[in-house]
Specification:
Helix content is 32%, strand content 26%. By secondary structure, it is an alpha+beta fold. The longest helix has 22 residues.
Length: 341
């Protein structure tokens, strides 16, 4: 989770910071934007358009909505090329690239496995091996054919279900940011739970200061590690709040395509990238890959940095890519960091 740390109050009088919030995609979206005095009504109207954009994406991409476009694709006939919206195709295209780069660890076709996790949490019981095998047989991006020229998606097998929870909020945050920037308000921040994307720096500041909350809840705001961003995004993925326990084992809401179960290792990842679509999907991918493979995955990417935190014997241990901003006084920690086993 990320917290936008308030900027110092010593800002020239002609600038004002306005904050707007609305619930979408099962979480709260927050837009914070700086505006010159007198332009507040223009900003308010533009923010309304940004929230409408998010709402439209939610209606199209939510697997909880029976009438959504993504569920219509799941119900569509097998073997038939289905014309889809520009947004859905772009999201699947971006997801497919992450799937290929992670050898299937990140996969938006893992809907059958996600449904099993939801049942497990509701019933407080693990799925049977037969249920997992059935769900895994209907999972795999290689069961799809994407045609960018015709903007169609073809399913090659029956029973596929889709879940874009590991990338959609970042995609929606990027879309909202574009609405604000194209409308003449570039000094803006859009936050959706653990995903934040920012535009130009606030007045008289080097950038937006973002506090990073890791696996252990209850940190005082003044003790949070912070990063300063300009025209970048940062996302976190982890099991801090969404999990269930069964027979003494904690199962994360992040479901492994390999085991078909929620992750049992306490791991969180914070990823910095040029946009929230990338940071969101890559943070999810890192947690699925684990600390060693996840760090190598990020090192193979250009312009993306990552901080990984794992819980060992009740204490947080950190691992960072070379370009991830370090907390003050932690250079020695970076130099001695070793990937957890």
């Amino acid at each position: 989770m990320f917290l936008a740390v308030p900027c110092p109050p010593a800002i020239a009088a002609e600038w004002r910071l306005l904050t707007f919030t609305e619930p979408h995609m099962g979480t709260e979206f927050t837009i914070r934007a700086w505006t010159e005095e007198g332009r507040e009504p223009d900003l308010t109207l533009l923010v309304e358009k940004a929230f409408e954009r998010i709402k439209g994406l939610d209606e199209a991409l939510s697997d909880y909505r029976p009438e959504s476009e993504i569920n219509a694709l799941a119900k569509a006939p097998t073997g038939e090329a289905i014309a889809v919206s520009e947004e859905l195709f772009a999201l699947f295209e971006a997801s497919g690239k992450v799937t290929a780069a992670t050898d299937g660890a990140f996969d938006v076709t893992a809907g059958p496995l996600i449904r099993l996790w939801r049942m497990s949490r509701k019933n407080n019981a693990l799925p049977t091996p037969a249920q997992i095998a059935s769900a895994k047989a209907r999972t795999g991006f290689f069961h799809l054919v994407l045609d960018p020229d015709k903007r169609t998606i073809t399913k090659k097998i029956e029973g596929m279900l889709f879940d874009v929870g590991g990338i959609a909020k970042g995609y929606a945050a990027d879309a909202a940011l574009r609405v604000l920037k194209e409308g003449g308000f570039p000094r803006v921040l859009v936050a959706a739970s653990g995903d934040i994307v920012v535009g130009e720096a606030p007045p008289d500041e080097p950038g937006w200061k973002i506090g990073i909350e890791t696996l252990e809840l209850g940190h005082d705001l003044k003790d949070l590690q912070t990063v300063t961003l300009v025209n970048q995004a940062i996302s976190t993925s982890g099991d801090t709040r969404r999990y269930f326990e069964y027979e003494g084992v904690r199962y994360s809401h992040i479901v492994s395509t390999e085991t078909g179960l929620g992750l049992t290792e306490r791991i969180g990842a914070s990823v910095i990238a040029s946009d929230a679509t990338t940071s969101d999907s890559h943070a999810t991918a890192v947690t699925l890959l684990g600390p060693k493979e996840g760090l190598q995955f990020i090192r193979n990417q250009r312009g993306i940095e990552c901080q990984i935190v794992v819980l060992r014997d009740g204490h947080e241990a950190f691992l960072r890519s070379d370009g991830f901003p370090l907390p003050p006084g932690s250079q020695a920690q970076k130099e001695s960091a070793v990937a957890p086993p």
